[in-house]
Amino acid sequence: MAEQDLNNRSNTIPIIGSEFVRPQPSDLTIIGDTVKDANGNKVFKVKTPLFGLHNKRILLDPNDSPIVTMKMKVTSKHDRWQVYRGGDLDDKIFTVKRSSSVQLKTRIEVFLKHNQTKEASCDFTIKGRFMKRACTIYVGDSTKVIAQVHEGDERLVATVYPNVDCAFIVTLIFIFDLINMAGTGV
User: Fold this and answer.
1) For residues 146 and 52, what is the distance between their CA atoms, to the nearest angstrom?
2) Which residue segment(s) compose the domain that 139 sits in?
3) How many structural domains is the chain composed of?
4) Which residues form the signal peptide (predicted)?
């Protein structure tokens, strides 16, 4: 059902904002907490607040304005993260969680705001292997790929497919990494 909804939008996937969607593939490089485009320009940065009771990260634009806030739900056995628009926790956009608490390969499910009460069928899936720091992001449970990530020389390299929200993909990549680090006890 989620795949049909997305296909009805002319194959454009602006989850966080249409300003982050490009008509051509985008290659992004992630080094630490900074994301750069193919030309070496900083396009995003992830900030970890120094103070607070909850594990959270904030995705910033090049001017250090908050795009989304990622907050881990502390009591979740499935490593659940909730993502909110901007710097506060008023407008939830989507939820990300490990599909099961025990996994050999990492499988993470993404549920958009309209789909969070039932969580019967995910809107996006991330499949990957932590040791290789590689993953592929799909629409729902389909085989339609919207982004791929692999590890390069001390960095992650992401290819975001055309008409897909780059801020959404970067947010998922950081959450994927955080969930995998939590699973290893780091």
Assistant:
1) 34
2) 18-182
3) 1
4) none
